[in-house]
């Protein structure tokens, strides 16, 4: 096992465990630790004023330290007190898997950390975003339940083939943007590809719509009033640039509603508008309103068509409770109702999320087809027939029968047996020597073997994934690319060593280090590095070394002149150092 488990993680199904990877805490360098410390100190200083009160409280409850990157399996010992757990993954994982983890009360944390160059914001999920953004806020019980429920509903959302293409493109951009030395033209090409895909998505899928809701709440949500909002979205909580920007009048504030589902977002740019929920309970209300529009609750012809468009594994549930899981390929319709459905490839039948004995993918290897609806000229549906009704209509073992459905589907053959559900309703009828036709088209013929006819007058639900998780081999996850771990130059390793020396000094592990000597080397060998001089300035302030402070400030001023983009970061670092001494 590549990670330390616990009772919550033990409950995860196998297909989710395939995404978990070891955190490899020893891979974090002293530069990574300095990036974490800078962002967290700045965040706590600023966010204590503008974030929802649950944030600062949650930092304490979840045991997240300001001074060092959290060991998430250490975090788990604290998270379990609020019924949650955390796991490490490699960057973005498929949206449905991400949602499903949430449904099991598991926080997915990308264990990499952003480069110093991207300290204010990165499109890549990283431990600052996940650990410092998502984890603290789930200490609020109302919000934690929203997150769990969101995952439960979200993992049933049906995607389109284009969603998978966009997911791959976003993952690719996040990887190359965080990789050292990626040419700017390659990043711009990836960004343009995402823009092209976003502009040509067609009618948004359920997954696209619910991802919009996730973005405008879990990632970029504001809470309170439009005039005086507070931050609770993890994307804002973990971005020291955007958390300040979003509070200005440059960003439009809109009362949160289901309309957010139709509002697109661009992961590569700061958001021009944000939604404000009055409280966490209202988030759940909107989520339920959205769920009422989904195929998982509406079923019907539109639900089947969504599954066909997805070109992925999905399930429909009939009015009898029979569940058909597979890749839906074709539907015959009449008067806006499905009258025959067909899957292709391995298909499984289930009832109440448990596979029916004898109806696994090994049996239905090449697909499954069945009529849906009522019999022609008979008021009572097959599923509502009692034993006497079934005998009267010759729907009985050993009878050779011709069944004609209202949609024109004909099933002719000899009945072998029927399968009933717990309520005593017939959910499946098995025929031999069976022919199934629609008008002049043959849908099933005797030489293909036994014919299993599903019983159900309507499709009550349609959703992503299988009914019984054990029916299919879901351990098929292969990332098209993984995060890039570059080979470090000798100079980079040397810089890491100097960061480590300063960290060791601050933590009292080695107080014999000459900070002046380190500063002189940084000044001459690494003239563009600003974060270590800021840390040295903090130590000089604590030591009341005025001459050393002035030396460092003069150097930082020269860095600001040469690279104005980091000027505000340097200024904020100095303010933090000054404030910590006062406090």
TrEMBL record:
A UniProt-annotated Pfam family: Biopterin_H
UniProt xrefs under SUPFAM superfamilies: Aromatic aminoacid monoxygenases, catalytic and oligomerization domains
Keyword Iron attributed: yes
Known cofactor(s): Fe(2+)
Keywords linked to the UniProt accession: Iron, Metal-binding, Monooxygenase, Oxidoreductase
GO biological process, one term: aromatic amino acid metabolic process
Binding site for Fe cation: 129, 134, 219
Gene Ontology MF terms: iron ion binding; oxidoreductase activity, acting on paired donors, with incorporation or reduction of molecular oxygen, reduced pteridine as one donor, and incorporation of one atom of oxygen
InterPro entries xref list: ArAA_hydroxylase, ArAA_hydroxylase_sf, Aro-AA_hydroxylase_C_sf, Aromatic-AA_hydroxylase_C
Domain of life: Bacteria
Family per similarity comment: Belongs to the biopterin-dependent aromatic amino acid hydroxylase family.
Name of the molecule in the record: Phenylalanine-4-hydroxylase
Source organism per UniProt: Flagellimonas taeanensis
């Amino acid at each position: 096992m590549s990670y330390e488990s616990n009772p919550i993680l033990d409950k995860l199904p196998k297909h989710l465990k395939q995404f978990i990877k070891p955190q490899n805490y020893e891979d974090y360098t002293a530069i990574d630790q300095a990036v974490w410390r800078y962002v967290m100190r700045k965040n706590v200083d600023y966010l204590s004023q503008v974030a929802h009160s649950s944030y600062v409280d949650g930092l304490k409850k979840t045991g997240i330290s300001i001074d060092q990157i959290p060991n998430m399996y250490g975090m788990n010992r604290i998270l379990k007190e609020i019924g949650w757990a955390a796991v490490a993954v490699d960057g973005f994982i498929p949206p449905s898997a991400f949602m499903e983890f949430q449904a099991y009360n598991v926080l997915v944390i990308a264990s990499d950390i952003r480069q110093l160059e991207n300290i204010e914001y990165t499109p890549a999920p990283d431990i600052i975003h996940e650990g410092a953004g998502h984890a603290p806020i789930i200490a609020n019980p109302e919000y934690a339940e929203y997150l769990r429920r969101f995952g439960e509903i979200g993992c049933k959302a049906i995607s389109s083939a284009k969603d998978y293409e966009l997911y791959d493109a976003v993952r690719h951009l996040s990887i190359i943007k965080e990789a050292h030395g990626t040419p700017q033209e390659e990043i711009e090409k990836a960004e343009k590809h995402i823009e092209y895909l976003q502009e040509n998505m067609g009618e948004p899928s359920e997954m696209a719509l619910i991802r919009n809701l996730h973005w405008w709440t879990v990632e970029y949500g504001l809470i309170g009033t439009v005039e005086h909002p507070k931050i609770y979205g993890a994307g804002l909580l973990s971005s020291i640039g955007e958390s300040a920007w979003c509070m200005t009048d440059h960003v439009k504030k809109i009362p949160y509603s289901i309309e957010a589902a139709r509002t697109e977002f661009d992961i590569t740019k700061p958001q021009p508008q944000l939604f404000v929920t009055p409280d966490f309970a209202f988030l759940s209300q909107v989520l339920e309103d959205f769920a009422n529009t989904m195929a998982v609750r509406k079923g019907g012809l539109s639900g089947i068509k969504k599954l066909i468009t997805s070109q992925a594994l999905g399930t429909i549930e009939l009015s009898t409770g029979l569940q058909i899981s597979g890749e839906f390929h074709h539907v015959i319709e009449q008067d806006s109702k499905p009258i025959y459905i067909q899957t292709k490839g391995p298909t499984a039948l289930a009832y109440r999320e448990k596979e029916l004995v004898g109806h696994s993918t090994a049996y239905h290897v090449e697909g499954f087809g069945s009529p849906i609806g009522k019999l022609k000229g008979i008021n009572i549906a097959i599923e509502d027939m009692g034993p006497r009704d079934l005998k009267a209509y010759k729907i009985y073992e050993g009878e050779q029968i011709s069944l004609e459905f209202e949609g024109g589907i004909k099933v002719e053959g000899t009945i072998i047996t029927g399968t009933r559900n717990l309520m005593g309703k017939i959910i499946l009828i098995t025929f031999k020597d069976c022919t199934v036709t629609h008008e002049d088209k043959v849908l099933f013929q005797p030489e293909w073997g036994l014919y299993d006819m599903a019983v159900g007058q309507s499709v009550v639900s349609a959703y992503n994934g299988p009914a019984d998780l054990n029916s299919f081999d879901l351990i098929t996850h292969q990332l098209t690319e993984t995060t890039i771990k570059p080979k470090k130059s000798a100079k980079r390793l040397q810089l890491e060593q100097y960061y480590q020396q300063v960290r060791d000094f601050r933590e009292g592990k080695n107080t014999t280090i000459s900070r002046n000597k380190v500063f002189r080397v940084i000044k001459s060998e690494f003239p563009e590095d600003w974060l270590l001089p800021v840390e040295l300035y903090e130590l000089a302030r604590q030591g009341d070394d005025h001459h050393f402070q002035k030396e460092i400030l003069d150097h930082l001023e020269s860095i600001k002149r040469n690279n104005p983009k980091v000027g505000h970061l340097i200024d904020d670092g100095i303010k933090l150092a000054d404030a910590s001494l006062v406090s």
